[in-house]
Amino acid sequence: MYLDTWDDFQKAAEDIYIASPLRTRYVSSYRHIDGELILKVTDDRSAVKYKTKQSTDLKKFIGLNRSMMSKMQNIEPTEAVHVPENAAQQPQGNAGIPTSKPASGKSKKSKKNRK
């Protein structure tokens, strides 16, 4: 269901996330043709939507993103974060970035030598 006011949508979206954080999805889409920003928050049981053409709602949208991301990143203090043992031994420059092997010096056969 589409909600008419931003405040109602933001409260409903945060309530859905608090009720079921593992099942909640937050989708945003922008229709360039119509100039519409459409936001949807659902947990497969209930869904709320908000549609706007106002550019002033963009700051509210960014604020909601920050609020939802901060809620999604909370880690319980009892959970341990796994740090690899060799993490301190990796060089700082290109740590974890694979390097490509240089091409071999062999060239392709020319058309004259093909049989």
From TrEMBL:
Which Pfam family, an example, fits this chain?
SRP9-21
Originating organism:
Umbelopsis vinacea
* GO CC aspect terms: signal recognition particle, endoplasmic reticulum targeting
The record, for SUPFAM superfamilies, names: Signal recognition particle alu RNA binding heterodimer, SRP9/14
Residue ranges spanning the membrane: these are: none
Where are the stretches annotated Disordered? 77-115
Mind telling me what this protein is named?
A: SRP9 domain-containing protein
Composition skew (Basic residues), residue ranges = 106-115
- Give a GO molecular function annotation for the protein: 7S RNA binding
Gene Ontology terms: biological process? SRP-dependent cotranslational protein targeting to membrane
UniProt domain SRP9: residue ranges: 4-72
